[in-house]
Amino acid sequence: MSSAFLRIRIFLLVVVMLYSIMTTQVVLGQPEQSHLLKVITHNVWYGFTKKSEPRHGEWRQWMSRQSPDVVSLQEINGFSANDLAEDAASWGHSYSEILKKGGFPTGITSRYPISHVRRIQEGFHHGLLRCQIRGVWFYVVHFHPSNYKKRIEEAGLLKQDIMSLPGESPRVLLAGDFNAFSPEDGCHYGKDTKLISFFEQLDSTKSSARNLNHGAIDYGAIEAVLEQGFIDVVAGQRSAGSPYVGTFPTRLIDDKDHGPDRRIDYIFVSPNLKKSVLSAGILRDATTELLSDHIPVVAVLDLAKE
Fold first, then answer.
1. What is the pTM of this model?
2. Structure confidence at residue 238 (pLDDT)
3. Please, are residues 266 and 223 in contact by the beta-carbon 8 Å criterion?
4. What's the fold here for domain 34-302?
5. How many whole angstroms separate alpha carbon 139 and alpha carbon 156?
6. What confidence score (pLDDT) does residue 207 get?
7. What is the rounded distance in angstroms from the CA atom of residue 112 to the CA atom of residue 34?
8. Domain ranges of the chain
């Protein structure tokens, strides 16, 4: 073998080794870009300040087992940015953002980088957190807990912000506790004789409460979201004759003070993400019944589909 040929082989070997090292560093530096995106939203009930342990630890273990890519959180009361980052790390997320200090903050954690973060509090009872992850605009929603008119106003403000997003057809996902009823569940609520009487009692004893609209369930806030073309992913995945499943209250606080079962936690996607939704559901089982007063909701998207 000539010395010139040997030098060429050595040179090529070095190039291959350097390329391998550089590729490995890129992979280690950021998570692999899978085309699938698993999103979970969960209201965790007063930031674990009530019935803290072992609930908080069990919740973190449960979240880790789910292996989500994005987690939308409501009621992370008492959390700091560092607290949220620590929890996020326990289920493998390196990125997190919190809406505010004090009150009832929302937050978001992600396996992938979070950008274009906007924190909006004016006009919203709890506030609105917006950001972008992998080209999708995420909104963490927590609407007013007891006034249907306020919720409709918040839905209007949400619409205004969505309309301000750059681009002709932004991909948008809304996730959170809307505290509102969906017309998709109207048949179920129409058969629930206890629901109206529960809210009548609530509205009569609390001066600021306006849950009922002239004695009837109001669907205005969710209708305002649906009118924009957003798809309720859970309702969209229901098969004919499938049983109704609510998200609140759970066995953790299930008593007369919290009323009958109802679905108030949602994930919505914009029309251009409709074909991306592979699956969606309410994760109600014996474990999640005791993790919070709300049941988590999940959706899996294939971002390669348009």
1. 0.89
2. 87
3. no
4. Deoxyribonuclease I; Chain A (3.60.10)
5. 14
6. 85
7. 10
8. 1-30, 34-302
